Amino acid sequence: MNIMDFNVKKFAADAGTFLSRAVQFTEEKLGQAEKTELDAHLENLLSKAECTKHWTEKIMKQTEVLLQPNPNARMEDLVYEKLDRKAPSRLNNYEVLGQSMLDAGSEFGPGTAYGNALIKCGETQKRIGGAEQEFMQTSALNFLTPFRNFLEGDYKTISKERKLLQNKRLDLDAAKTKLKKARAAEARAAAEQELRVAQSEFDRQAEITRLLLEGVSSTHAHHLRCLNDFVEAQMTYYAQCYQYMTDLQKQLGSFPSSFSSNNNQPATTSVLNMSVPTVPASTSLTPVSSAVPSGFTELKGSTGTRVARVLYDYDAADSSELSLLADEDCISGNPARLCSLKSLSSSR
């Protein structure tokens, strides 16, 4: 019975306090009651904390989009995180592309020029995918986690104490209003005592809130270190990608810029057969410079003679075309002089 009486009294006191705060808040909104203003320093700290929370949320959200553009994958990761379970590993876009290239290269055959190039490209794409996975993990640990800890830890505590400060401020102003309305000496004495208690609790809560808010500056310093870690992770990732692509370019060889605009030439363009030393002058031939611009690396000698190097194998489609072998060099001053340098050197 005593416990029940205590609970009833506590409930009645809480209800009375809540009602007093509600009345005070309403009268303040209507301009019918005075409001105790916080000091300027505390207001500035509150504004700084709110600004920090806003931009931390926004930066964290955009970083998550950068690291994982797929919204469905982000939602799946969030669900696993809430369930305190590890999300299943998944291939990223680079790894999927790399695996497709490897499969295609194996199908065409690693002995062919195209199949070998696909395999090399596929391996590089998978390396880039691995670098991206490492970048995502490093960024999530060193950048996103501290930001999330601030929002879910420090700022929640600040919000709780700030709300408590608001309640103490309403209690203080309600006590001031009650003292103004008190007429009898006994009522004024009780109101003054209530005001002193409310003022003391408000001052104590304001100090607690101020100390927590001043810690936001150390949060900025911590986030600055996290930002440096994020930039370093990005730099490492992009440097790895650049190195992988540089190595791949060396393996595949680079095309001259003068031929880059001719890559859309039809595949049925007639190509000259370099497997014989000479070709009769009466044979109708297409000039080398226009016939196979996408398949040769072409150089001009000091005498005006054109030198062309075959970059990949070509099998003649019919009797009007000629077959070519990769890495074969040929020279041509006119169609009658067209010949294979390798054939000439072997004949010597």
Descriptive notes:
The protein has 348 residues and is mostly helical. Helix content is 66%, strand content 5%. The chain is built from nine helices and four strands. Strands 1-2-3-4 form a four-stranded antiparallel sheet. Helix 2 crosses helix 6. The radius of gyration is 39 Å and the shape is rod-shaped. The model is unreliable at 255-303 and 333-348 (pLDDT under 50).
Name the average pLDDT.
79
Task: Describe the global form.
Answer: rod-shaped
Q: What would you call the structural class? A: mainly alpha
Our estimate of the beta-strand percent is under 5%
Q: Which sheet architecture does the biggest sheet show? A: 4 strands, antiparallel
First-last Cα distance: 119 Å
Number of helices: 9
Based on CA atoms alone, the radius of gyration comes out at: 39 Å
Fraction of helical residues: 55-70%
Walk across the major sheet and give the strand order.
1-2-3-4
How many runs of DSSP E, i.e. beta strands? 4
| Low-confidence sequence ranges | 255-303, 333-348
> Secondary-structure element order, as H and E?
HHHHHHHHEEEEH
